Amino acid sequence: MNVNAPAQAISAPTHLLYLHGFRSSPRSFKALRLQEWLQQHRPDVTCSCPQLPPSPLLALAQVLATLRGWPSGQVAVLGSSLGGFYATVAAEAVGCPAVVINPAVNPARDLAWHVGMQTGYHDPTQHFEFRPEYVDALRVLTPAALTRRERYLALIAKGDELLDWREMAARYAGCSLRLVEGSDHGLSDFDEHLPFLLHFLQLTP
User: Fold this and answer.
1) Dihedrals φ, ψ of 143, to 5°?
2) Which of 72, 66, 61 is closest to 48 using CA atoms?
3) Is domain 2-200 given the CATH code 3.40.50.1820 in the classification?
4) 45-59 average pLDDT score
């Protein structure tokens, strides 16, 4: 395990927004596990994981509307894969802390191969169209650089079978960074890293 400690502590949020990845849903096991922990140990913290539309512009508009509707300075956003990309864009727009898990750093490039009809990961009966203009939108939305890197925590698995961990680590260099030996894109050993995530968010003693 390779860990870079945060440059400075952040204030504990009262509201958390979890953003799922491409083809995923609010049934993401990481989102459910986080919500379960909060219900048991921090019921005072609001946590939401909405279903995001396939359109990046609509997804980001929904994310920003939620964050801006919550108490200023008391929110944090978390995201996995494409959700990690959205979390980063949102953090740059709103100025809130962000936790990203195996985040997509160049989704316009990576998802260009997925233009067309897609099925939901948790429910294959659900279909949606990923349109060419969505790729263009992802390209436009990509931040040129990250600011205030101390507000980011990146959990990155070297065993990610879909994304290059070196590219992710380079993107979030200077942030709080936890490099995981092995594991996978979904971070199936999420429970092992949940305490670290919660400590970063100042939600544990």
Assistant:
1) -65, 140
2) 66
3) yes
4) 96
